[in-house]
Design goal:
The chain is mainly beta. Among the domains are: 96 residues, no CATH class; 110 residues, no CATH class. It has two helices and 27 strands. The strands form seven sheets. Strands 18, 19, 20, 21 and 22 form a five-stranded antiparallel beta sheet that branches. A four-stranded antiparallel beta sheet has the order 3-2-1-27, with no helix packed on it.
C-alpha cells in the first residue's frame, strides 16, 4: 500500500550538482525532476499541505517558488513592490504556512532587514497570499527588540510562524508571529539548552506538539535532548523532556519522519532515531552506487493534488464582479 507522504531531500552530489530526491520507507531514493532554472542555487524552506517552498540563494531569497513534488508542478511567485523598493535590504528567512482562519489558504512569509544608516536596522515582514496572488507588508510589532540572522525561519504550525532570534544581541530565543501579522512574541523554552548553532538545533512537530531538538549546554558530551511543548507558545507554556539521545554529539538533526522517528545526518551517513524504542538504525541513501557528499535540506511532505496556481474565482465571486 502506497504511503501518503514522503521525505524530500536536497542532496549535494558534487560541489555544483544538487538534486532533489524523495524517500519512502522500504524503497530506494528517487530523483524528482522539477522545472527550476538551477536547483543548486535553491534552498528548500519547508512544506505545507503538500506544497513546498523554495527560494533562490543566488538572489538572496528575492525569487520564491512553490512546488508540488507529487504533480511536479512548479511556479515562480510574482515579485513584490518591497523587493523592487529595498536596494540595501537582506532577506533573513522565507517560509510558508496556512491561515487557519481563512479556509487554510496557503501563505508565504518573507522577512527583510533594511539599513537606514549604519546604526539603524528595520525588520520588515511581508506575506504572499495564493488566493490573491500578491504580496503585502504585514504589521509585526517587535517589543522585545529581537534581532534575526540569515536563515532565521524555523517552521509553521497552526497559524503561526516560528523564527530563530536573538535578544540584546546575544541571548538566543524562539519568536512566534501569527499568520497575518501581530506582535513578535518570545516563546519560553527549556533552561540550559543550546540553540546557538544552526546545525545543533531543530524545531518541528511531533504528535501535534511543538518539539525542540537541541543540545544541553550543561552536558560535557553535548548529547541532544528532545523536548515537547505544551501550551502552543503562550506565556504559560511548559516543556517536557522526552529523551536524551546518547552518543549523539556528532549528529545534525534534520526532520521528524516515520511517525516517531527523527532523522539525523552524521558526516555523509544518515541515521534514524526511534523516540519510542530509542533504537538507531542506518538509512540507505546510496545513489546509483555512489555515496553523497552532504544533505542540504530534508523536509517531511504529504502527497497532494493542490495546485501552485491561484484558485479560479467561484461563480459567486464572478457574479459579484458584474
Amino acid at each position: 500500500m502506497s504511503q501518503n507522504y514522503y521525505l524530500l531531500l536536497r542532496l549535494w552530489l558534487t560541489p555544483y550538482n544538487h538534486q532533489l530526491y524523495s524517500l519512502e520507507r522500504g524503497s530506494s531514493p528517487k530523483q524528482i525532476s522539477i522545472s527550476l532554472p538551477n536547483l543548486s542555487h535553491h534552498v528548500v524552506s519547508n512544506s505545507c499541505s503538500g506544497l513546498m517552498c523554495l527560494y533562490t540563494d543566488f538572489s538572496c531569497g528575492r525569487d520564491v517558488f512553490l512546488c508540488n513534488p507529487t504533480t511536479k508542478e512548479t511556479r515562480l511567485l510574482p515579485s513584490s513592490c518591497l523587493a523592487a523598493k529595498i536596494k540595501d535590504g537582506t532577506i533573513l528567512g522565507v517560509g510558508m504556512g496556512h491561515d487557519c482562519r481563512g479556509n487554510d489558504l496557503i501563505k508565504v512569509v518573507r522577512m527583510w532587514i533594511s539599513y537606514h544608516n549604519s546604526r539603524s536596522k528595520n525588520y520588515i515582514v511581508e506575506e504572499y497570499d495564493l488566493r490573491s496572488d500578491s504580496w503585502r507588508i504585514i504589521e509585526s510589532a517587535n517589543p522585545w527588540s529581537c534581532e534575526f540572522e540569515t536563515g532565521s525561519f524555523a517552521m509553521h504550525f497552526k497559524g503561526a510562524y516560528y523564527w530563530w532570534g536573538k535578544v540584546e544581541g546575544m541571548t538566543r530565543t524562539i519568536v512566534r508571529l501569527d499568520v497575518g501579522g501581530g506582535i513578535l512574541n518570545k516563546v519560553a523554552f527549556p533552561k540550559d539548552v543550546d540553540i546557538s548553532s544552526s546545525s545543533g538545533r531543530y524545531l518541528g512537530v511531533l504528535n501535534e506538539y511543538i518539539t525542540l531538538v537541541c543540545r544541553n549546554c550543561c552536558h560535557q558530551n553535548a548529547n541532544f535532548d528532545i523536548w515537547a511543548m505544551h501550551g502552543g507558545g503562550t506565556v504559560d507554556s511548559c516543556w517536557t523532556k522526552l529523551r536524551t539521545i546518547e552518543n549523539s554529539s556528532s549528529y545534525v538533526p534534520l526532520v521528524f519522519w516515520e511517525k516517531n522517528e527523527l532523522l539525523f545526518k552524521m558526516f555523509d551517513k544518515m541515521k534514524s532515531y526511534n523516540i519510542d524504542t530509542e533504537e538507531i538504525h542506518n538509512v540507505n541513501f546510496e545513489n546509483e552506487g555512489r555515496g553523497i557528499a552532504d544533505i542540504c535540506e530534508a523536509i517531511f511532505c504529504v502527497k497532494s493534488q493542490i495546485s501552485v496556481h491561484p484558485p479560479l474565482p467561484t461563480m459567486t465571486q464572478l457574479g459579484g464582479m458584474d
